[in-house]
Amino acid sequence: xxxxxxxxxxxxxxxxxxxxxxxxxxDAFKSQAALAEKMSKVxxxxxxxxxxxxxxxxxxxxxxxGEVSTVKEDPADYTKAMTDFASAQAEMTAEHVAAFxxxxxxxxxxxxELLMAAGKDMQEEASAAVKKATDTATKAAKATxx
Length: 146
Hints:
The chain is an all-alpha fold and 146 residues long. It has a domain at 46-130. 88% of the residues lie in helices and 0% in strands. The radius of gyration is 32 Å and the shape is elongated. It starts with 6 loop residues before the first helix and ends with a helix.
């Protein structure tokens, strides 16, 4: 009566009675890690391109500001310089916003493509797991029936 119950052995015996195939879990983890890696590449590529567009926009703006800040002979030239700057800014804004839109469009297309491929892979893995489980259950049922 004073003997303590070995719960570790009891759990080991219980888990041994219900064998599990952990390869499905490992495959699922590998698939998720691969998807995360591909999604990270898409995000990093978009960040790199966005940075390039931002840098180009900033350099262009600074160059135009340099033109505005030069000394002019006639006061009307200041008005013209500001008007030219505003016009150039509007044009650059449209150009760069379009570039950002193209980056976003590519990210969206790549993401949908990756998710569709991942969904197809998961469907195939699930089908294989169900088939394997069915085969195992059928074998166990046949063995029990004998």
